[in-house]
Every structure is written in C-alpha cells, then in structure tokens.
Amino acid sequence: QVQLVASGGGLVQAGGSLRLSCAASGRTFSGYTMGWFRQAPGKERLFVAAIHWSGGSTYYADSVKGRFTISRDYAKTTLYLQTNSLKPEDSAVYYCAGDRRKLGSGFSEENFGSWGQGTQVTVSS
After folding, report:
1. Does the pLDDT of residue 59 top 80, yes or no?
2. Which long-range contacts (CB under 8 A, 24 or more apart) does 79-83 make?
3. Residue 83 and which of 1, 8, 17, 93 are 20 to 30 A apart at CA?
4. DSSP string computed for 70-102
5. Measured between alpha carbons, how far is 25 from 98 in angstroms, rounded to an integer?
6. Of 45, 94, 43, 44, the residue nearest 68 (C-alpha)
7. Residue 46's beta-bridge partner residues?
8. Using CA atoms in the order 78, 52, 114, 87, what is the torsion angle rounded to 10 degrees?
9. What per-residue confidence (pLDDT) applies to 1?
C-alpha cells in the first residue's frame, strides 16, 4: 500500500505563499495520477489540483486557478503544491492523494483512493 505524508503547512498572512510537499512511498509513484485536496473544520473535502501520472497535464479547482501550481518530482517521488496569494478561505488541512488506478486515463475525483496524512494551512487576514 502506498504511504503519503504531506508537509510544509503553517501560518501565513493573506497574500503570502507556502510550498506543500507530499512524500510517497510503498508503491510506484510515477505511474499514478496525484492530487491535492483540502478540508476545513466542519466542511466537506474539496478538490484543489491534480497532475496526470505522466506529468503532461494538470487540473485545478476554479477557486485556486492562477494562484496554485501542482508539480511532481519523479526522482524524489514527491508531489508539490505551490500556493501563492493565499486567502483566509484557503485555510484548511491539505491532503495529497493518489489515483487507485495505475496508468489511469483522464481525471475524476472518484478515482482517488489512496489518502495521505494532511498538513495544516492557516491564512490570517
């Protein structure tokens, strides 16, 4: 089973930036589409961004488009999320996840079945 551990969260003022990382182990990393999700207390889990297993395409939620960038380092088997121009509404626990399918085609939230430990992002106004 794959193990995913997110890190890099913290407290930042509105307009600031954070670079989140997700270290993957226990399963092949390069053949799986990866994504970031977030969940605030008492709120539903929301999709943030995803990157295809090939690294050739990315997808973003409208709420973060233009501000966040997802990337991956195959050599380090690590997923990243660069968050810029942070807003208080971005505050949440951020989780990384992997597609349950190897070499899966397309993107759909329902395909993510391997969840990692989250990292807290708090944006002050």
Report:
1. yes
2. 79/21, 79/22, 79/24, 79/34, 79/36, 79/51, 80/19, 80/20, 80/21, 80/22, 81/19, 81/20, 81/22, 81/36, 81/48, 81/49, 82/17, 82/19, 82/20, 83/17, 83/18, 83/19, 83/20, 83/121
3. 1
4. EEEETTTTEEEEEE-S--GGG-EEEEEEEESST
5. 11
6. 94
7. 38
8. 70
9. 64
Distance (Å) of CA 84 to CA 16, 66, 113, 123: 6, 9, 27, 11
Tell me the pLDDT tens digit for each residue of 11-51: 999 999 999 999 998 667 889 999 999 999 999 999 999 99
**pLDDT tens track for 86-111:** 999 999 999 999 999 999 998 898 99
- For residues 33 and 53, the answer to whether their CB atoms sit within 8 Å is yes
Task: Using DSSP bridges, classify how beta strands 18-25 and 112-115 pair: parallel, antiparallel or unpaired.
Answer: unpaired
